[in-house]
Amino acid sequence: MNQPSLETLRQKLDETNRQLLELLSERAKIAQEIGNLKEKQGIPKFDPVREKQMLTELVASNKGPFTDDTIRHLFKQIFQASLNLQVTDHKKQLLVSRKKQKEDTVVTLGDDVKVGGGSPVLIAGPCSVESYDQTRTVAAALKQAGITVLRGGAFKPRTSPYDFQGLGIEGLKILKEVGDEFGLKTISEIVDPAHVELACEYIDVIQIGARNMQNFELLKAAGEVRKPILLKRGLAATIDEFLHAAEYILARGNTQVMLIERGIRTYEKATRNTLDISAVPILKQESHLPVLVDVTHSTGRKDILAPCAKAALAAGADGVMVEVHPDPATALSDAAQQLNIEEFGNFYAQVRESGLLG
Ligand code: PEP
Ligand code: MN
């Protein structure tokens, strides 16, 4: 009998490829359906026991010429591809995702300051609320400059337990009093889930700091209230981890979340952290939430705040945060990096001049 020609064999192979593709696509659709069912039932997508079972059955039915190991290897690839498909589908469902919501989320601070609506906001204030007078002095200067949002830490997550830890609730009360006097919206960091509800009485925005970006109980507590949340990127958090942290808040029903890039740890020592400017357009692409940049904590350098703020705005940031203290040399935290009021004036003028603040 004549051997089939190379051409005939190749045609057979092409046909088999097509059939395999059809079967693989069919299999992928079934896997997607399973993924959706698991999603509804809250069952994990990856099931190692089931995978092992399938591999055992396949190997038992293997009549060659592929070895059992090769069959295992090939099917593991197929299983992984199906799992990836389920996870990608799942990602589309994230509440923070642009795929879920196309329009930008606009966060309203108090009843009139909008963040994410196309007109960038400048948030300024001391690292820590140290006293009524210190806070009031900064607030008066900021108000005069036309700033609408005042920041100030009352609960300070310090590296050393011997450093100033903040005035606590007393600090929030000072912020409220000063904010009310000057009609400024206020932001302060909360570190304890038990304080989230209480903090709502005093401040307009709850900040979750870099060190707490993955404090999941705090994120859940922030999701339970209906106050805007300013979520800082963790010291070594990937963008994906950052977005998932925000997802914790949205998943509990609080949609008023702002993301803020504050620099990440790298080997670079010229700045306190490395400002990841690329995070701004990536976050804006991936998510509908407003994205801000903290130029103070990311750089730790007063001399480059203005160009970094301009870069942030040019990259599409919805706002910039900067620390201002009446007398930085005597500040109880971050003394080296806070601007005094005159320096703030120069910084603000430079940023405004760029036309990027709107
Ligand atoms: C802050 O903004 O006061 C602060 C402590 O920043 P971070 O959490 O980004 O270090
Ligand atoms: Mn600080």
TrEMBL record:
One of its GO terms (molecular function) is aldehyde-lyase activity. SUPFAM superfamilies: Aldolase, Chorismate mutase II. GO terms for biological process: aromatic amino acid family biosynthetic process; chorismate metabolic process. Residues 6-40 form a coiled coil. Residues 1-90 form the Chorismate mutase domain. Signal peptide: none annotated. NCBIfam families: CM_A, DAHP_synth_Bsub, PRK08673.1, PRK12595.1. This is Chorismate mutase. Gene3D superfamilies: Aldolase class I, Chorismate mutase. InterPro entries: Aldolase_TIM, Chorismate_II_sf, Chorismate_mutase_GmP-bac, Class-I_DAHP_synthase, CM_dom_sf, CM_II_prokaryot, DAHP1/KDSA, DAHP_syn_2. Keywords: Coiled coil, Transferase. It comes from Paenibacillus tyrfis.
